[in-house]
Amino acid sequence: xxxxxxxxxxxxxxxxxxxxxxxxxxxxxxxxxxxxxxxxxxxxxxxxxxxxxxxxxxxxxxxxxxxxxxxxxxxxxxxxxxxxxxxxxxxxxxxxxxxxxxxxxxxxxxxxxxxxxxxxxxxxxxxxxxxxxxxxxxxxxxxxxxxxxxxxxxxxxxxxxxxxxxxxxxxxxxxxxxxxxxxxxxxxxxxxxxxxxxxxxxxxxxxxxxxxxxxxxxxxxxxxxxxxxxxxxxxxxxxxxxxxxxxxxxxxxxxxx
Length: 257
Ligand code: MG
Known about the structure:
Blueprint: E1 49-52, E2 60-62, E3 65-66, E4 70-72, E5 75-77, E6 85-91, E7 94-101, E8 116-120, E9 124-128, E10 163-170, E11 173-175, E12 178-181, E13 184-189, E14 192-199, E15 219-223, E16 231-239
Antiparallel strand pairs: 1-16, 2-3, 2-6, 4-5, 5-16, 6-15, 7-10, 7-16, 8-9, 8-15, 10-13, 11-12, 13-14
The structure holds magnesium ion.
């Protein structure tokens, strides 16, 4: 096959390539997965890295070393009092998929109902809660960036039903102790966009505001033991390269480098 592009076109801005450059590498081929349904887990794309494939917790650590949550029927469930668990795998910018279910039997209210949490890099919590017909403070509802930003809408399924988070995460950048660019989060809850490239103020926390503190460019995924019998399954990620363009990683096309 001959050239499938051009070499007599203008240079693209901030790029080593020309428009339709025949030398520009084609993207790698990935076989897409399938969507999950409230009853069936989805199938991951071919290049996904599994953090939990439904079999065991060998990829996780707990408070005293071993992760002590319960694994059965392809999911893991919080064992209250055993503590949060963290992935052995550490990663930065990524696409992350996970599925969770809050207890079918409704107990408690507000923050005391089906509470858990997904902490990116161990520091930045996306709230997991049974938020179906369960009033609580807005920045603590399901899919909130906890203590910072409520989701755009409440897309919760009923208690006991499996739900999905599809996360696109841009890690914060540091130079020494200085913050170069903050973290950004895009989140789909059950296929509905609930955060769109939302900037984070800093690490999340309870009843306080926390400033960014320099940390490594990769970190573990942490899942929270908040004392409720929340389940997780089908947890995988795909590492993402820094966005092309300005190169600062913020993805906004700004000129900050
Ligand atoms: Mg929580």
